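lol forgot to send this yesterday, sorry. struct tokens for the thing we talked abt
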């Protein structure tokens, strides 16, 4: 029995109640340090230990369980429908403008109506998410709702409780807690998390979202809060509503107060007294928009003194004390010149629209994905249509909707062809599939894509194997499948366009090296099995340990692997039954490409070590670095302690982590050194 379990079993009810209370306070504080301040005091393992003890107490004394217990962040039982909430005071919307002139006009009006020559303004980014209202009674979260129509919103308390950045209890002295606090903010999904989430959804064959805002809204309005719990949602708070106790005198102080209470605010907010300074700040934020890991669609400028809000009042549901100064939109209207089918690695035919080129948020957009035939039909997209195209972060531009009012009658409906546009082979839609596939496994388009995928950054990472080169290799029949890459000879390569002797030698060397150093998860990913992305390749590798074992696994066995559903299990099983693919595996093995999984027991290079990654690495994301650590048998931790073996520091490392490393005498590795030990 665990030590904590023995301890808990010894407690009487009163002792358990007190200990549970104490644990909740501690956990909430550590949560705040981790999620809001990004400066944890304890390791993940220590946090888990505290949480485990609390769970044990709550299991033994179920009546001691409270809805604001940190153990409840996993979600509550599903509901039939979301309830409704009447907002104490309406959640207004803002007047939106796009021109500097309009902002200056707003400033002058405020000065005039307030009878002052100068007015202080608090300036904040305008977050593009879903606005929510949270009520805290005596420091505890009791209700959360969406904005809805401004007067009535949907009740989403259970869902909001799963967001780690939302404190279930406020920080600070209990005696100082406002009895009633109504705060508002924006729930959002960060762009990198959104991209990763969409990739995973696609791999699983499940619904993807058009942009981070829709993903946040869809995730927050779930009937089953355990689904929300699995979604990477975050929040920025921007208001203490007038119905709250002990509201400060200015918006600027409200933001400070929010922070003190443990409610996350955005670091870019500023207070200015001069309109010129506001313009400067606005231009600066606009220039940095693409660097931010979350979507903002403008800035909100607010008269700082709250008493002035009463004086200025509202007009047509818009407060006259605030203004939304918007950036140029990331949606533009343009025309579809043509729609063509592109053939992907798995043979899937994707309809892609060729557009009348249009500049969206500084990027020239010429193509937009239409995903599949169902999407074309659902949106009723036709060649010649005027369409609204959307671009968010680094997501591929897509058609948001058709402007049907602009139709002339000459628009042409589109159907994916019945033959492959590249090889002319038959194309069809297998039962229960949303996609049309080219059935010819030797289709040059598929072969090219699968070779590119094989050598891609997260596959074998073959230096110099770009699109143009692969085109030539396949067109000249030097390469028919990825294994042929290992047979390439310098003399043959030299006959290709723009291929000097040195580049040819480099390529042969790069292929050879990639084959020697490839790990099992990378090779599984590189094979390009439908629905198998990096995360799945990782679990498959650790579950089966070798390609042989994976290729012999039955559907049942595959389905037992965490994160592998029916669809994926079938796809994997079918892939390994295909004669073409079996031949590819044999050829790879013959050429010495047959890695085995190194587990902690068989001595992964980092076996038994705890490593913390901080800052930005050049060659991989932090997530990938952590995966690599785990793959080599190590533990990737989020905080530095005496038990940490190494801190890997990229660019702009976290100050608290570097300090802790120094304090505990932990060796700090730069990226190069880290790559070497990997
Ligand atoms: S203050 C009286 N501040 O923009 C309304 N709103 O049209 C006060 N939003 O529904 C809103 N970031 O969802 C405010 N820093 C911010 C905001 C913000 C995003 C959203 C919010 C609101 C909409 C206003």
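and heres what i got for the seq, position by position
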């Amino acid at each position: 029995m665990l030590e904590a379990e023995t301890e808990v079993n010894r407690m009487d009810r009163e002792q358990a109640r007190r200990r549970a209370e104490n644990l909740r306070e501690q956990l909430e504080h550590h949560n705040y340090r981790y999620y809001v301040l990004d400066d944890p005091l304890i390791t993940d393992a220590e946090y888990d230990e505290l949480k485990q003890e609390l769970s044990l107490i709550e299991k033994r004394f179920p009546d001691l369980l409270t809805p604001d217990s940190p153990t409840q962040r996993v979600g509550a039982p599903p509901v039939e429908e979301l309830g409704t909430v009447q907002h104490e005071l309406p959640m207004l919307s803002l007047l939106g403008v796009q021109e500097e002139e309009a902002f200056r006009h707003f400033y002058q009006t405020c000065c005039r109506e307030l009878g002052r020559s100068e007015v202080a303004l608090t300036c904040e980014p305008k977050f593009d998410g879903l606005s929510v209202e949270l009520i805290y009674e005596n420091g505890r979260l009791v209700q959360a709702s969406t904005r809805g129509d401004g007067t009535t919103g949907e009740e989403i308390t259970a869902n909001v409780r799963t967001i780690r950045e939302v404190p279930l209890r406020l920080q600070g002295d209990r005696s100082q807690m406002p009895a009633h606090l109504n705060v508002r903010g924006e729930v959002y999904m960060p762009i990198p998390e959104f991209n990763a989430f969409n990739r995973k959804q696609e791999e699983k064959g499940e619904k993807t979202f058009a942009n981070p805002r829709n993903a946040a809204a869809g995730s927050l309005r779930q009937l089953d809060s355990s689904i929300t719990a699995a979604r990477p949602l975050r929040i920025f708070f921007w208001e203490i509503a007038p119905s709250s106790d002990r509201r400060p005198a200015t918006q600027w102080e409200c933001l400070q107060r929010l922070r003190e209470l443990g409610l996350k605010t955005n670091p870019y907010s500023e207070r200015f007294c001069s309109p010129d300074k506001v313009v400067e700040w606005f231009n600066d934020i606009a220039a940095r928009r693409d660097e931010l890991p979350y979507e903002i669609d403008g800035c909100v400028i607010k008269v700082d003194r709250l008493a002035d809000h009463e004086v200025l009042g509202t007009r047509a549901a818009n407060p006259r004390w605030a203004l939304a100064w918007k950036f140029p939109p990331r949606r533009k209207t343009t025309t579809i010149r043509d729609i063509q089918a592109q053939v992907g690695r798995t043979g899937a035919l994707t309809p892609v629209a060729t557009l009348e080129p249009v500049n969206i948020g500084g990027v020239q957009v010429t193509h937009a994905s239409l995903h599949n035939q169902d999407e074309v039909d659902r949106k009723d997209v036709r060649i010649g249509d005027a369409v609204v195209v959307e671009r968010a972060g680094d997501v591929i531009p897509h058609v948001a909707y058709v402007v049907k009012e602009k139709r002339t009658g000459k628009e042409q409906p589109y159907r994916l062809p019945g033959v492959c546009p590249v090889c002319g082979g038959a194309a069809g839609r297998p039962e229960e599939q949303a996609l049309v596939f080219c059935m010819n496994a030797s289709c040059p388009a598929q072969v090219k894509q699968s070779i590119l995928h094989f050598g891609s950054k997260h596959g074998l990472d073959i230096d110099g194997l770009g699109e143009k080169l692969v085109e030539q290799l396949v067109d000249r029949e030097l390469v028919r499948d990825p294994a042929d890459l290992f047979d390439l000879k310098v003399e043959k390569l030299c006959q290709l366009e723009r291929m000097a002797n040195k580049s040819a030698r480099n390529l042969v060397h790069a292929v050879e090296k990639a084959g020697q150093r490839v790990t099992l998860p990378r090779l599984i990913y590189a094979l390009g099995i439908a629905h198998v992305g990096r995360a799945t390749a990782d679990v498959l590798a650790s579950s089966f340990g070798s390609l042989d074992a994976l290729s012999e696994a039955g559907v049942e066995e595959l389905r037992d692997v965490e994160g592998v559903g029916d669809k994926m299990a079938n796809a994997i099983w079918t892939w390994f039954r295909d004669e073409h693919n079996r031949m590819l595996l044999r050829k790879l093995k013959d050429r010495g490409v047959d890695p085995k999984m190194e587990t902690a027991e068989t001595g992964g290079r980092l076996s038994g070590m705890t490593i913390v990654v901080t800052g930005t690495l050049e060659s991989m994301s932090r997530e990938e670095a952590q995966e690599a650590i785990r793959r080599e048998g190590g533990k990737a931790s989020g905080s530095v302690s005496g038990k940490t073996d190494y801190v890997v520091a990229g660019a702009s490392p976290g100050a608290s982590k570097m300090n802790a490393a120094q304090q505990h005498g932990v060796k700090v590795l730069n990226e190069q050194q880290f790559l070497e030990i990997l």
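The chain has six domains: 2-74, 95-325, 331-428, 441-517, 520-590, 610-677. anyway ping me if u want another try
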